[in-house]
Write the structure tokens for this entry.
Amino acid sequence: MARKMRRFILGLGLTLLLSGCMNTVSENTQDELEDQYASVQEYKGEGYALENGKKNDKMATKHRGEIEGAVKTFFLDRYHTKVKVHNIVGNMEGATVFIESTGPLSFYSYAMVPITGGEVQTDEVWSQEGQVESAITDGLYQQMFDEEFRQLDRFLESFVMEGGVVGRTVESLGNVGGDGYMTPYYFISTSPLEDEAIRPVFNLYMKAPDSSIEELRTVFKEEAFNPENVRISIMLFMKEEGVQPSEKVFKQLIKNVETLDGIPKGAYSIFINDNRVHKESYEGVKDNSLERAYPNEIIKK
């Protein structure tokens, strides 16, 4: 949930009056801060947590089978989509269940299962308004413009090999990503409510999920397409630990995206982070990150 939840560690608010203890406390604090982070190459979702979710974490583990079944039924009945469950995390009111579609569209998402009075409410599964709909729209864009996204994938795979940077692990995308169409190097942000061009495609898919890509393309309103409605966020990390985000890599990536032909039309944001990911929130963007983002995206028309 990178675009929805950005929790930064902004300070500890410590006032130390005993100067003789200051060095010891400072060292301990630094150790505690570092322990909140993991190398992006190693992070697969371990330590991810939601507010006040520890109690329901235990309940979710105990009732994992019935929670999985209820969520799979929810996605199949409401969104005509078969899914596999990657991870279940307790939240204040129940459990958040991270899923991945198994076709024909490719996307990650999540749903919530309430837990009340020690009982798992499997008949009351729900999702945040518009979240799954946007994830489906991400998948539709990727399917309809498959070759353009393949071109973007090929470029980023090559750039990563030569640029001293890496992406997220595939396991982390499944376990704590939940954010529509995602790859280790980027994710898409779209919405059928805001995008007039894709809305009839989404409506057709919801009525007839077996529609072919050709049939879906016929209802796409290309004349209404606005690239700012397809936000593509490229999120890369320094390969080596303890290294600051590279200004040289950042500028080169921007230049390449600005001049590259054949990639999807859209509004591109660029992020170069250090090697660390915050375990509890999955956040990689920090105070030292280099970014070019809204309202200064790269617009590919």
Notes: The radius of gyration is 21 Å. Residues 29 and 270 are 32 Å apart (CA to CA). DSSP finds nine helices and twelve strands in the chain.
